[in-house]
Amino acid sequence: MKIKKAVIPAAGLGTRVLPASKAVPKEMLPIVDKPAIQYIVEEAVASGIEDILIITSRGKTTLEDHFDRSPELESRLLASGKTDLYNQVVDIANLCNIQYLRQKETKGLGHAVYCAKSFVGDEPFAVLYGDDVIIPKEKPATRELCDAFEEFGLGTVGIKPVPLELIHKYCSLDATQLREGIFQVRDMIEKPKPEEVITNYAILGRCVLPAAIFSVLENTKPGAGGEIQLTDAMRVLAQREGMIGVEYSGKRYDMGNKLGVLQAIVEVGLKHPEIGEEFHQYLLELSKSL
Ligand code: UTP
C-alpha cells in the first residue's frame, strides 16, 4: 500500500537547546540558511508523501508562518529584481499540503503521534521526528522506509548503530540482519538500563507505522521520563507481529542537541553552493590555531 500521509511531531519543549528554543521552536533552528523543519518537509515530499500534519504547540506559530505565503516580502523581492529569492520564498509555500494540530500538553512523542489519529484514518503513515534532519545519500530516508513497508507489510523503523556507551539515551533494539540495510526487529527498550541493552542499534528519527498503532497508543502508560513513549507502543507491534529496521543511507543530524546543531551547520555549510568554498578556506585557516 502506498504511503501518502506523514506526521511530523514538533511540539516538544526543546530543553536541550535552551535558551535558543525559548521563543524560537528548535525545529526552526537553521542549518546555514534553511530551518530544520524545511529539510524534513522536503524529505517527505521527495519520498512521495502528499499530505503532512505537523504537531505544534504554544509558541510555535512561526512553523506555520514559514510554510505560508508572505505577500509583503514577495512584492519587495519582485520589485528589487531578486527573482531567485522570490521563487525560493514562494516555492516553500507550495511544497505540500500541510495541516497543523496543537498538542495541548507535551505528554511525549507517543501522545503527539496519537493526536494525529483522525488525520491518519486507517492508512499506514510515516512519522518524521521534527528535530532529526537526515541529509540523503541515495534515496531520502523516508522513501527507504516506505519501500521496506511496501515489501514486508510490517511497521518499519529507521535505525543506526550508536556508541554503546550512549545507548542509554536512545532505545536498544533486538535487531537481526536479513540483508544489507534490512533487519528483523522483535523487541525494543526505551532508555535501557545497562542490564537491559540488547544491541547498540537504536531508532533514529523515522518510522512508517500501520494505523493499528493508535489502538496500542490508547493503552500505553507513561514510560521513561513520565512521557507516553512511541517506542513503548512500537514494542507491542514488534513483539506481536515483528517490525522491520532500515539502516537508512543518509546522515542524521540531531537538531535537538547543541553538538548536533553545530555538526549539521559545519557539514552542510561545507557543501553549500554559495559559501561552501569560502567556509572551507576559513575552517582550514582556523584549524591551524586549534
Ligand atoms: P524529543 O524528546 O527529542 O523532544 O522528541 P523534546 O521533548 O523537545 O526534547 P528535550 O529533551 O526537551 O530537549 C522528538 C520529537 O518529538 C516532538 C519533539 O518536538 C521532537 O521533534 N515531541 C516530543 C512532541 O511533538 N511532543 C512531545 O510531547 C514530545
From TrEMBL:
Note the InterPro entries from the entry.
GalU_uridylyltTrfase_bac/arc, NTP_transferase_dom, Nucleotide-diphossugar_trans
- Please, which domain of life does this record's source organism belong to? Bacteria
Q: Under the GO molecular function aspect, what terms does this record hold?
A: UTP:glucose-1-phosphate uridylyltransferase activity
Q: Which UniProt keywords apply?
A: Nucleotidyltransferase, Transferase
Q: Which reaction does it catalyse?
A: alpha-D-glucose 1-phosphate + UTP + H(+) = UDP-alpha-D-glucose + diphosphate
Q: Is the Nucleotidyltransferase keyword given for this protein?
A: yes
Domain Nucleotidyl transferase, residue spans: 5-257
Per the UniProt entry, the signal peptide is: none
| First-level EC class | transferase
Q: Has the keyword Chaperone been applied to this entry?
A: no
Q: GO biological process: any one?
A: UDP-alpha-D-glucose metabolic process
Pfam families from the UniProt entry: NTP_transferase
Q: Which CDD domains match?
A: UGPase_prokaryotic (cd02541)
Q: Which Gene3D superfamilies match?
A: Spore Coat Polysaccharide Biosynthesis Protein SpsA, Chain A
EC assignment: the record states 2.7.7.9
Family assignment from sequence similarity: Belongs to the UDPGP type 2 family.
The protein in question is named: UTP--glucose-1-phosphate uridylyltransferase
Organism taxonomic ancestry: Bacteria, Bacillati, Bacillota, Clostridia, Eubacteriales
